[in-house]
Amino acid sequence: MDFSLSEILSFTFMQRALIVGIPVALCAALLGVSLILKRYSMIGDGLSHVGFGALALAAALNLAPLEVAIPIVIVSAFFLLRISQNSKINGDGAIAIVSSSALAIGIVVTSITGGLNTDLYSYLFGSILALSHQDVILSLVLCAIVLFLYIFFYNKIFSVTFDENFSLATGTNAKAYNMVIALLTAMTVVLGMQIMGTLLISSLIIFPGLSAMRVFKSYRSVVISAAIQSVFCVALGLLLSFYTETASGATIVCVNLVCFIVFSIIGFFRRR
């Protein structure tokens, strides 16, 4: 395709994808750092499978997809946190149980209702064409809420991320702030599913933080680097997906992979 950047940005669907993708990328990167450090990074993958099950249910009942998926994924995030904290099932085990069950339910529902339709396919693999005007407004509002809560509770999130036991000893309600992290993660996963797809949204949470940790050591530096990198990768990935006519989610992941390799090389030489 022989389009200039200004011509690409003149398309309504590209404008919507960037308007939604950039704040979602920012939210995912900020939360991803905490989730990685708490060894709970695969929660995004588990919740995305829950999202697929919720979307399949919404399609079967002819309901608005995001309005169904958001509360179900949020409840699932709280449930995951609860059973991992209060039972003999560890975090990874809880995620595996919930994600596989939700994915199975989604597949059964789609089989009963006639298989994957275009909307479900776009949620599964990501599509910049799937964003409606209403989706953009809802996504921006929810992203603003996520960013506000993250900034407002930044010090507490930092505290429970690095030393939850110390936080408890100093009177911090660590469980409550873990719930805040779970809530924000659930909202971010649902918002990112349309662009990244349910199969790939967890990469948006994991890659930027891991890449930043290859080079930077302080929490603040890692958070800032991850945020900048995530926004860059999503913007570049969306533009490349237009040129190459590939799925937006997969293209964004490939860009993130390249960045991870570059940061790993930089980190290797810095250590030497």
Could you explain how this protein is built, in words?
- With 272 residues, the protein is mainly α.
- The protein has 13 helices and no strands.
- α3 (43-61) packs parallel to α5, α3 crosses α10 and α12 (219-244) packs across α13.
- It is globular, with a radius of gyration of 18 Å.
- The mean pLDDT is 82.
**Which class of secondary structure composition applies to the elements?**
mainly alpha
- Radius of gyration, CA atoms, in whole angstroms: 18 Å
Low-pLDDT runs: none
**Main sheet makeup:** none
CA-based shape: globular
Number of helices: 13
Our estimate of the beta-strand percent is: under 5%
Average pLDDT number: 82
Helix content: over 70%
Say what oligomer this is: single chain
What is the CA-CA span between the terminal residues?
43 Å
Question: Could you spell the SSE succession in H and E letters?
Answer: HHHHHHHHHHHHH
Count of beta strands: 0
Write the SSE topology.
Blueprint: H1 5-9, H2 12-37, H3 43-61, H4 65-86, H5 91-112, H6 118-125, H7 133-152, H8 154-162, H9 164-169, H10 174-196, H11 201-215, H12 219-244, H13 248-271
